[in-house]
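Please decode residue identities from the backbone states below.
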């Protein structure tokens, strides 16, 4: 979903440590830049804002760019009471921040359009000590960095049709 964001994060980590807050702020910029007003549902985890809290980073989803919109249950009547319906979107947001920062992250859904929350879907993202999640996210970052360094940039013009 955010290929330029992920590559930017890899380059940024080469310059030194990256905080989750910095990674989240960049995710908002990349998310909103990719949002197509004509078909926002194509991005199932669009982040419109981040708030730093004592519990972590509160990621506010865009009301038209979330899993519940893609599944056509975004209004409170159709998806009544489904307060964890978009947990997958939160997992994608946490993974994106982890890829950018190099620090394992987890999320928990704390607000849901389908449950009638006025701010829409929102997710608390925070660092994790869960070895299973951390091992997967760290390995993905390692492979990304290895392959990015070894990769040769290919432009669209260089690919035969």
């Amino acid at each position: 979903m955010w290929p330029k964001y992920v590559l930017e994060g890899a380059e940024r980590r080469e310059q030194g440590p990256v905080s989750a807050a910095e990674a989240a702020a960049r995710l908002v910029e990349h998310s909103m830049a990719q949002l197509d007003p004509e078909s926002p549902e194509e991005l199932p985890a669009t982040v419109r804002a981040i708030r730093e809290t004592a519990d972590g980073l509160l990621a506010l989803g865009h009301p038209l760019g979330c899993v519940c919109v893609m599944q056509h249950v975004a209004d409170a009547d159709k998806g009544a009471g489904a307060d964890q319906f978009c947990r997958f979107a939160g997992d994608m947001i946490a993974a994106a921040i982890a890829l950018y920062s190099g620090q394992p992250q987890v999320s928990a859904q704390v607000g849901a359009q389908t449950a009638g929350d006025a701010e829409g879907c929102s997710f608390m993202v925070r660092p994790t000590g869960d070895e299973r999640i951390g091992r997967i996210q760290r390995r993905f970052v390692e492979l990304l960095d290895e392959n990015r360094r070894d990769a040769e940039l290919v432009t669209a013009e260089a690919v035969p049709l």
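Observation: The radius of gyration is 17 Å.
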